[in-house]
User: Which sequence fits this backbone?
């Protein structure tokens, strides 16, 4: 899963909000039971706060989660527009692993149905032309089922 966010901008914003509240990295870390190195990683854009503490962090810093993920304060007039932009930028794209899994799925289907067809033809139970029809029907039905289940 790839999510498009500017981690450096978010990190600078966290540091700015922390300083506005008069907190050190150590103070912030102690409030959440984490290391000050974790806070440093947020502020340098190397990582994001864990989702389990994000709401509490935002409450402590006096910001919304949308502001945190945007890396800037959002006035109420722009709030809906920024929220829509953030959702659009977080479109989920398939990762390399998911693409490989998808390819392997289709390869498995092809080999399985080709093997069944080969066995049926060699046993003389069905002619080659008619053996392709169930193979295509099964492939289409499995594809439709997978699309509906997503």
Assistant:
């Amino acid at each position: 899963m790839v999510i498009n966010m500017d981690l450096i901008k978010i990190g600078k914003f966290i540091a700015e909000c922390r300083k506005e509240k008069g907190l050190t990295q150590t103070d912030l870390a102690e409030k959440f039971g984490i290391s000050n190195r974790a806070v440093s990683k947020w502020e340098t854009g190397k990582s994001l706060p864990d989702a389990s503490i994000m709401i509490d962090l935002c409450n402590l810093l006096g910001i919304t989660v949308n502001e945190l993920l945007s890396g800037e304060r959002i006035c109420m007039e722009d709030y809906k527009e920024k929220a829509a932009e953030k959702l659009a930028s977080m479109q989920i794209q398939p990762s390399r692993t998911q693409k490989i899994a998808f390819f392997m799925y289709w390869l498995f289907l092809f080999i399985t149905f080709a093997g069944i067809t080969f066995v049926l033809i060699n046993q003389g139970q069905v002619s080659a032309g008619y053996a392709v029809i169930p193979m295509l029907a099964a492939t289409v039905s499995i594809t439709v089922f997978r699309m509906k289940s997503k």
